[in-house]
Every structure is written in C-alpha cells, then in structure tokens.
Amino acid sequence: MGWRERTTLAQRSWVRLFNERATEQVVVNLEGESPTTVQAIFDSEFVQLDADAENSVADQLTRVDLIEADLPRAPEQYREGDSVFVPRTGTTWRVTHVERDSQGMLSLILTKGAGN
Fold this sequence. Notes:
- By secondary structure, this protein is mostly beta strands.
- The protein has a single domain, classed as Thrombin, subunit H (Beta Barrel), CATH 2.40.10.
- The protein is built from one helix and six strands, in the order αββββββ.
- The chain has one helix spanning 3-19; strands spanning 23-29, 36-50, 57-67, 83-86, 91-100, 105-112.
- A six-stranded antiparallel barrel has the order 1-2-3-6-5-4.
- Strand 4 and strand 5 (91-100) form a beta hairpin.
- The termini are far apart.
C-alpha cells in the first residue's frame, strides 16, 4: 500500500470516527461527467471570518467537505458551476468556490441552485 492509499484510508477513518453523525452521501455533478455519489460532510452553517477586514466581517456559508481520492477528477479541475445534490434535503447546490487543504480534503463552497 502506497502513501496515497494510506492517507486516503486514514482520512476515511478520521471522518468515520469524529464525524459519523455529520457525514452523509451526496451526489457530485461535474460538468461533462456522470454524477458520482460520495460520502461527505455537509455543513449548512459554516461561518467564515474575514480577519483582514477593518471590522472583521463574518459570512455564513454552506459547504461540503470531500476526500479528494473519492472524486472522479483531479481537485484542481473542480470549478464554479459544478453542483452537489443532497438527497436528505432534496436540494441541489451550485459550487461558488473551491478550497483545497494540504491533507487531501476538498471543500466546495455552495449556494442554492436554480429551482430550490
């Protein structure tokens, strides 16, 4: 088992151990590809603080965190306009921003898609 496989296994174990109740299956729809169902952490109340602002501005955002190895294309290919469907809520979300960390996780910042 190589480094990437071990890292992915560790990430999945971490998600199960610490976020079991917070994880759920979501359907990621990427432009030009078939929809992919993946396990994710869906956070509809994520707060982002802009510490560089003179008066510290906070935004409430919706985001979904995914393990990069579970996705059908390279993380740098994700872009605005891709979508995520959350079966539990019946809501389709549009990706407005993509954030990568250095640990193999991908965060998609979302806004409600058309028709929701």
